[in-house]
Amino acid sequence: MTKPLPGYPSQTITRRRFINSCAACSACIAAMPLAGFNSCSPREKMRIHIIYSVTDIVQPGPDWPNIGFDFAPVMENFNTILAESCPEFEFVHSVASGPEAAENIIKLDVDKNTGGYIVFQLNCWNRVVQTVINTEKPVLYVDYKYAGSGGFLVYTAGFIRNNTPNLGFVASSDMNDLVKAVKQFNIIRRGGTVSEFVEATARIRRDLTPGPGGRDYFTDELTTISPDECVKRMKVSRILAVRDENSRPADPLMHIPLEYISFAVVNEAWQTADRDEAHHIAEGWQQKATDVIEVPFEELENSAAMYLGMKQVMKQYDANAITINCLGGFYGGHIHAYPCLGFHELNNEGLVGACECDIHSTATMVAFNHMTGGRPGYISDPVIDTAKRQIIYAHCVASNKVFGPAGSENPFTIMTHSEDRQGAAVRSILPVNYMTTSMKINPERKEIIMHRAVTVDNDPDDRACRTKLCAEPVGDIEKLFTMWDRWGWHRVTFYGDLQDPAYALADEIGWKIVEEA
Fold first, then answer.
1. Strands 321-324 and 239-242
2. Do 254 and 165 belong together in one domain?
């Protein structure tokens, strides 16, 4: 039996029941309509086609929510609840892994009097909704939290920017919010316009989003340096970017020197790291962590050797920041340990270890690390949940000294990297009731995007990345949906209210602040 979906009403469903409801699962993934889901419907019912944007019924590789994740009960749960809650509609169901599969579904719908579509983004980057939007029929686009959220945010922002006329969207963990949005298809059923449907879904979403909590938060004794001093320190910093097998010079980012080095440089430093010292560091991590879950001690030693290797390379190149294409390097066999725990330790020390060779986020971390006297930035893949009026910052790397190397520590657990259940990563239980500032630079446009939020919780959900810091945005949560296509998914979160220091730094270097909330 499966567990109830987080945030949704309980449904007792087995994977066998879902698979048996399909005429053939392989035909589903080929994008043929799913058989066996519909009973005969009265002719007055409006036909709505639900399309699940997903790579496979069981997640075949590393991606959100995680390898091996079974989507069968998820889809069956949605199907059952919508059929029971919206009996005025006839729902048909399909799955599609990409544009070609989506096109095949649309072709089969031509003569079937389909009134509209619901597209669930179950994996992050499958491009299905783009094809469905082109039908010009009303489309309700739905994020399945901690699964398709990256693509959902980026694609939705693009649709908003392009004034897409037939898109409504839902980003809520409350199934009732989804049901109420689906009910707006009654506007079409009664002869209304697509624009009226879109306006109604937006109104429902806004009305169901809680208002600002006005919560109190702890006073943060944040001390910052002057903008000109910050720029001086940025100019004598150095970022090492490990993207591929090539080493090459690069132009500075936001006045910060940048140099690309090869996987081989890091791998050699890992190979030659002192294994006795790595053993000692691994013991320290094991003792400090509240728990170590499904990570053997040998993997801790391996991660510690990677940490020592990265420090050696940083010393060799006189750098205070390193960012590595960790997934590409690990899956390609170029590196043999995840750098997650090493990044965790570097950030605790006042240095910068940054994920995924994201040089813009790394430069953001360097700049405001200097500005705040060593506070670590936390790169994340954000998720928006309107039901709780929250933005959730999710990643498998996080410091546990958010107030800087001399500040207090918060608890952390060592776990596998979430997407592939390999290596060693961190779930940091970050402090709540503090103001944070999330930012990212864009040197081409000379802009810094920024929003602030008050931390309220840490979500232990097993889907997606290990650390999930929940926060209530300061400002307009609806505006938070509009920028992801221009800035990408990552944001860098710092503890403290850095609004004024960020504006001062931008003024110093002739850049612009873009407030996204």
1. parallel
2. no
Prediction pTM value: 0.91
pLDDT in tens, 399-425: 999 999 999 999 999 999 999 999 999
- List, for residues 213-258, the tens digit of each pLDDT value: 877 899 898 999 999 999 999 999 999 999 999 999 999 999 999 9
Domain range for 247 is: 227-515
Six token digits for residue 169:
């969207």
How is residue 33 written in tokens?
Answer: 């309509």
| Domain end marker among 173, 208, 243 | 208
Handedness of CA 351, 343, 286, 407 (dihedral sign): positive
Residue 160: how many other CB atoms lie within 10 Å: 18
Is the residue at 214 inside a domain? no
Check whether residue 121 and residue 173 sit in a common domain: yes
Residues 6+ apart with CB under 8 A from 511: 254, 446, 447, 448, 505
Is residue 43 very low, low, confident or very high in pLDDT (cuts 50, 70, 90)?
Answer: low
Region label for 68, one of left (φ > 0), alpha (ψ between -120 and 50) or beta (otherwise): left
Compute the Cα dihedral for 349, 353, 359, 362 and give only its sign: negative
Closest CA to 171 of 144, 150, 195, 191: 144
| 328 and 449 within one domain | yes
DSSP helix/strand/coil, 221: coil
DSSP secondary structure letter of residue 403:
T
Of 382, 469, 476, 395, residue with least CA distance to 433:
469
Same domain, 258 and 203: no
